[in-house]
Each structure stands twice: as C-alpha cells, then as structure tokens.
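S1.2 Input.
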Amino acid sequence: VIGRCTDQRGESVVRTFVWTQLLSGSGYCLGKTGVAQGRQQFIAPNFLRSLALCAHKGFAVSCQIVIDKRCGNSEAAAALVEVAVDIVADFIAVVLFVPQHFATPGQQLRPDEGPNYTFPPLIGTSAYNNNITGFSLLKHVQISYTGSLDAEFKGATPAIQFRYADVLLNYAEALAELNGAANANEIISALHPLRDRVGMPDVDFDREYNTDPEYPFAGLDKYVQAVRRERRVEKACEGRRLEDILRWAAADELIIGKWHKGALFVGSNLKDAFPTLVFDQPERNTIYLTGTPGDAMRYINPVNPAGYEGGWQFNPQRDYLLPLQDRMISLTGGLWEQNPGW
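S1.3 Output.
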C-alpha cells in the first residue's frame, strides 16, 4: 500500500510511505525491492500514523494498493487485497471523520474575521478564546452568518441536549447488553440511520471486532463492543463521555492512569508557530506537553499535570456515585444515607 502526501493541489509529492505485507509461501509482495526500494517502510499502524500526521499538517493524502503478480499465490494475494482495503478504508474514514469536528489548515472557521483558519489560538487574547488543546472545534459551530463568532447577540447554534442519535444509541446498547447475538439484526437497523447519514456501511460485527490487547474493550463481546465504539464516534466532542464511562463502570480502562492528549506540538509546525510558549521549566510554563525533553514527538497536555504524575485519579470504590448534599440528607431526617466513600 503506497501512501502519498502532496500539496493541496496534488501536484508536489512531499513524502511517500509504503506498507509491505509478507505473504505466506510467496515471499515479500508489494516489493522487498521495486516500489518499496529506497523508501521508508512501516508496519500498518505506523504507516497510518505517518499519513495522519501529513493530513494534520495540511497535506493532501492518498493511498494506492499495488499487487506484484510475480507472487504467484492468488489466494494469498486476494487475502492481502482484503486486508489492505479494510485498513485503508478505516484510515480514510478516520481522516474524513476528523474535519467534521475540528478545523484543519485552510478551512473556514471565522468567515468575517479575515483569512481562513491557519493555527489554533494557543496564545489567546483572553481565557475565553485561548485554545488549550490545539484543536479548534467545528462541531455545532455556526459559520454561515454575518457577525463575529466570538460576539454575543449574533448568530448562534442552539446547544443540543438530547438528539435522535441518543435514542438510537441507547436502544442499540440495551439490545446488545440484553442479548447481542439474538438482537444483532435489530442493532444493525437501529444504527443504520447514523451510518447512512455519513455514507458508512452498516455495522459488520465480525469485521469490526477489535481484539487488539491495547484496545480498552478488547475483552467484550463483539455486539457490546460495536455499540460502545459507535457511541464514541457519534457523540464525539459533545461533553457526554464521562456519563458513558460511569454507566459502564469503565474507569479502569478509560480513566485511571491515563493522560490528556491534545494536538502534536513537538514534531509539528505548531512549535515553530508559537516560539514564545514556555514549557519544561520549573515554573511559569504557558503550555504543558506529554513525554520528556528530547522526545521527537510530544503532544499538548491541556492542563498542568502537577499532582497527578501517574495519570488521572479515580477511586472505583467511591467515584462512580456522586456525593449527596448534607442538606438533602438532613431534609429526609436521615432516611437517605451518604453514598459510599463520601
């Protein structure tokens, strides 16, 4: 699979990546020599990350599947095509998904404030418009009116509290938890409108089942895993993720010991674009990063990590339930008891 990064017009090739696959009984296809010769070779995850980084930097990306007919193993070649198509399709889905949620270089963000979006405002004029993640959110932002996006009493997109997607996702999750195998067709039907809206095929539980041990829900059955992933994708950037984690009792997998992770800073052009930002100093830092000095790639940490060097804190014996107000306990004459640990 040959991935190319070009300028936005597709004319000048900036970088080329190749992912090669070893076919059993037929040696290297996609070229141990030939198309792969002289180019950096990656296993699939690094290959996709490299292309994603190019896309993040504003380059156009494309993928091409090439089969060396000299392999002579039609079954193995067919298997390779199937694997390559799946991986590249998933990558394209991710690349297409991100611009729906975040502004990318050259994209319209503030239509009446000069040039299009170039860099996130990591140095804002106030706390109101200071970007702390490196991603400028587009989801639910209205950009088709005349007037400042940051001003009051102009056009505004109403805040959505509950939408039809929530109904479908809740229904699909209930079906999966009750009996996913028996309710498989009904789950597919429930999620169909969400996927059809963006041109995605219906859920395929077998193809989409993720058994990678690094995936937090690798141990779940394929039906529950599918609806949880669907919820994460559909509800991204809507501020509802914690509710899901609490309902699933999944803090061990998704909170404890984890870190915030914003945009790539060291290793991207953000570092050069904001040379006055201070980091890795004993005090007065203006930005915080993952990793340690000298790492080739470091991401923005949106908050000061002091006090939780081992990652996010969460007490599973207490924090799945919120505390009751003492006033409410008093009003019931002690009939209500405080939640455990509070």
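S1.4 Remarks. The first helix runs from residue 44 to 56.
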